[in-house]
Amino acid sequence: MSANPPANPPAGPPASLARRLGTGDAVAIGLGSMLGAGVFAAFAPAAAAAGAGLLAGLAVAAVVAWCNATSSAQLAVQHPAAGGTYVYGREQLGEWWGFLAGWGFVVGKTASCAAMALVVAAYAAPPGWERPVAVAAVTALAAVNYRGITRTARLTKVLLVVVLLALAVVVAAGLGGTGERAGTASWDLTAGGWYGTLQAAGLLFFAFAGYARIATLAEEVRDPSRTLPRAVLGALAGAAVVYAAVGTTALLVLGPDRLAASSAPLVDVVDAAGWGWAEVLVRAGATAGALGALLALVAGVGRTTMAMARGGDLPGALAAVHPRHRVPHRAEVAVAVVVVVVVLSVDVRGAIGFSSFGVLLYYLVANLAAWTQTGQHRRWPRPVQALGAAGCVVLVVTLPPASVLAGVAVFAVGIAYRLVLMRRRRASSSGSASAASSHTQASQGPTSRR
Questions:
Q1: Which of 155, 244, 253, 306 shows the smallest number of beta carbons within 10 Å?
Q2: Predicted TM-score of the model (pTM)
Q3: Domain range holding 137?
Q4: Is the pLDDT of residue 207 over 70?
Q5: What ranges in 177-322 are assigned the alpha helix state H?
């Protein structure tokens, strides 16, 4: 008998998820997450932080995201299981590192889910009905995810087409419209200073984090050694091009000050350019983009929650996989419930900063884990991971102070939770060992008297 048996030994190996996704499916999920997550929401706070310097911030965010993407792809090939950096951190660095990554992802992306639901409501709901509509969006998309990952991929592709069409109209209006433009005369690329530029980069990093959903779906893609690197880098490259085009257009038409003050900047772009007729299409694209991001976010957070439950860092009941739909149904329901609670208590801009805090720490662990890989598992040189890790630290500390304080507090809660959980496990293991020893002595007693 083992001296330290697990507190809750599993009845058998955990049920696996079905490998049903190809490269196109994975790229669509990543692009749908990135475009919906940032293009309709992140430019305004970035402009408030850095003015026209948000373009430099966008470049910084893209470089850090590329470093993180290569680390994620390299790790996902070696560890093609659901859970992303939670799994990579555990396998490469130790259980505590895995827990910190998983906790950062779950809490950060829960905030992202709430932000995207609120964006849906801001563009689609009548005044006064924003939060009920946001709750309805979360509930409906959780139901879609519950039915299976292939349905998630199909719906994400449809939403992505609508988003790309709307963004193409925005760029065409900005470049070819007849309205008045701010031009480049008001641009001061140094208005925010280095701190403002880095803060804008940290906020815009929120927009690039969609490729994390590809890694968390590693247990559901076909031929992961080929699919994952292609999907991660392809989705990131596509998003970077779209963001650069849309961000430049918004600055040209609105100027830094008006962009910073806008609650619906891309709608304001088409209106200012004289294409008011296109407002309905842009609002539809914003709604579709936010819905696509929310759809993929709920899927990714649910799978990381399942992985943490498998590892014993969250309640074991959340590790269940639905026998028919092959999805982590209990984890997804739990995530949806928490997101609804957050929707009722946050605003979009605060959620973006808090999400960036959690996700940047998640990728810090990913870069450190990729640094330890050797031999055939290494696809990119270690300086790439060093740059990615340093970039994550710099962007975290330059986020808005309120986001940093909230993030530190939530991480402290997570650490305290795991310490209590570990103490209970040790007590349970000690009690089990003591009971086993007493049972052995009792069974040997009559034999010794004979």
A1: 244
A2: 0.77
A3: 23-427
A4: yes
A5: 193-208, 211-216, 224-261, 265-272, 279-310
